[in-house]
Amino acid sequence: MFAYVGSAGLAFGLRPRAWSADADPTLNTAVSTAADAFNVFDLEAVARSKLPIAHLAYLDTGVEGDMMVRANREGFGKYQIRAHRLVDTTRVDTQVELFGTTWPTPIVLAPVGSQCAFFPEGEIASARAARAKNHLLLLSTVTTSPVEEVIAARGPPVWFQLYPTAKWKITEALLRQAQAAGCPVVALTIDNQVNAGREALARGKKLDPRDCRTCHLPVPGSLFRLKPMFDGLDVSMLSGVITAHLTWDFIRRLRDATSDEDRSEGHSHRGRRHTGTAA
Ligand SMILES: Cc1cc2nc3c(=O)[nH]c(=O)nc-3n(C[C@H](O)[C@H](O)[C@H](O)COP(=O)(O)O)c2cc1C
What pTM was estimated for this model as a whole? Predict the structure, then answer.
């Protein structure tokens, strides 16, 4: 008897073609709501058509000539999923437990600051999306929506991403605020030690016909305007959230400043912050 055990391959006799909006933007015309998108690349194509060029350049690129973003993508492309055939997949369990909470999948919304620059409802819209799909949300220090409102829209727990500042008092105040709002875990971003060389952003700004100074005031501390975590804090001595002095001493200090119930976790920007250091 002949038994054929193999993978099912269907030949449609079509010319090979890239069926993704990324490869062929004309395929993207049908995406008018998020529900129309088949994958995130469909949404990326919509963002390209809708966002002002300077904001798009900030959102969509890495640093220097994007060398590290490309290298990371190529690197991840080399990973493949090894399928085990003849295994019952009726029940697939992708659950993970993180600091005492069980999540249905390991997919989390990484911290992304300044979201109101891309969509008027900013972090609140992301919080609603995270709630709808039950994903963990990490809220950025430079959120443009108040932490309390984000937690109300997502439902707890929401983790807080900490950009430590050069002034411990301010860093501590940010932590306290997140703790008081109910964030149980702090994700510390550790690769923010030098200013990133954002070439694409500089080019985007040149091409953007709008007057950027309407929002980005050319005065010290303007970075913290519209960033509610910094409301009421004295940021006059801060030029940004770059912390050159971040060492293990800071980790010890952070640990001492958080109670037993609060936990911390490391986070990095991958190719968005440095070139030459792989993800
Ligand atoms: C527009 C934008 C804003 C970001 N803002 C933050 C932030 O405020 N804090 C932070 O720790 N990481 C921030 N990140 C970094 C992301 O959390 C993430 O680490 C990075 O995009 C790499 O992941 P990816 O390769 O999947 O994009 C930001 C990324 C983007 C694209």
Answer: 0.86
